């Protein structure tokens, strides 16, 4: 065999083995969970922020005539929008830290780079991340449930509008079909009109603002679900990586 060819083949083999070791050291579970978290948070925060803005516009246009009737709702919406800004920043940084921690503790990386002896500090840090991720997952479960409330409101509104469209030949019964924003706590009980009935409600459901707001809340709800799935995946992968750390030879 030609010595030049033999040297080139050995070099290619060495490069291939190096690439395989590098790819083998990637914590794929943590990487997938991080991508899910990024996409879920982006969907939840982006769509949720715009949906809140459109909700304020709908309430102002069709359910309240006086500024004092919905000023409290406007302040609450503004507060939640600021919370969304904070959530987006926090989860962006936290997911990056979790991915870095996944690279550090993955058992595949230990096999790739040889014998690994974890320090007590490293194990405590990994355990802290597991506890934090568990707490975040429980708290985010509440956010996931809370994000279903506007979807439920718009679903009921859409169902009422569909009933009105079916009963268009009986105007008397149509006017009895209403959606009262005051019943959902969006407006005070003395707000005027506070509700939309009959063909007025049907016309509201046919507007572009209504359809877009409904779709945005559904997307935000889906984003919250994706984020919850990402946190559960992060918790599971971090726990598996911690369990794979060697139990003996731990340095103090």
TrEMBL record:
PROSITE patterns: MYELIN_PLP_2. This is Proteolipid protein 1a. Keywords: Membrane, Transmembrane, Transmembrane helix. The chain crosses the membrane at residues 30-52, 73-100, 129-155, 216-236. It is a multi-pass membrane protein. Belongs to the myelin proteolipid protein family. GO terms for cellular component: myelin sheath; plasma membrane. SMART domains: PLP (SM00002). The lineage of its organism: Eukaryota, Metazoa, Chordata, Craniata, Vertebrata. It comes from Lates calcarifer. The keyword NAD does not apply. InterPro entries: Myelin_PLP, Myelin_PLP_CS. It is found in: Membrane. Pfam families: Myelin_PLP. GO terms for biological process: axon development; central nervous system myelination. GO terms for molecular function: structural constituent of myelin sheath. Its main location: membrane.
